[in-house]
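User: I would dearly like some help making sense of a protein record. I have put the entry right below:
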Amino acid sequence: MVFAIVVTYNRKALLQECLAALGAQTRAPDRVIVVDNASTDGTADLVRDEHPEAELLAMRENQGGAGGFHEGLKAAHAAGAEWIWLMDDDTIPTPDALAQLLRAPAAMDGLPSPALLASKVVWTDGSLHPMNYPGFRRDDPELFVTSCERGVLPMRAATFVSLLVHRSAIDDHGLPLKHFFIWSDDIEYTARITRHRAGYLVPDSVVLHKTKTAYTAVTDTGGRFYYHVRNTVYMLRGGSWASEEKLSLAWFLLCTTTAYLRNNHFRRESRATVARGLRDGARPAPRIA
């Protein structure tokens, strides 16, 4: 049984498009759960009134993408889902996106069985969306070559924009961390799983990430960069990455922070954003039920 989980917040038009794309799948999900992060634009009424095929999980407060996916995965797992297909409301799957993901395990022929399967994520111009580049395994060349021969690519981390999660991954590694709120909660979670289990990108499964621009954490120059800094520090302190991988993660944080400050001309607000992220990332993580 496959459950689709769509996390949404105040984006009714995009949610409508996402749900229509789910309804047009050549292999439809068995159940669809919409996690509404306490929207104020009538999203809950829209789902109840216009989408009887979808179940509404209404959050009492906005807990960000991290909290929404945490609760969605928990609900689907408790209901007996074998595979759980995750996406935001601005994810528009092509008609065979789910079918291609589900087809992949049968073609692996001796590869480690997948706990995670991810789609190729493109922007509106057809190029790969820079916010959703997966991290690939580079420690096993033979696995990489064999996976390519099977039509998949071994991953180390991926985003929640069309990610298929097997229930055993939740059994073994738990749920996303709510206190991340937004950004890198998916990277931490998938890295936590693929440190012990296999995950693959399935290039034949394609989804559109329908953002206004092809942004990244660096080019989205508002205060949300705080979450990138804070959550990367959380990951440096956590156990999802090996010690040698954390060197690369620290270098990535240094490069992205430098680029962010340069893009913002080292203004006072941008320096304060980085400082707050470093400070809060070094503090004990809050416990959110």
DSSP finds ten helices and ten strands in the chain. The mean pLDDT is 96. Residues 122 and 128 are 4 Å apart (CA to CA). The two ends are 27 Å apart (CA to CA).
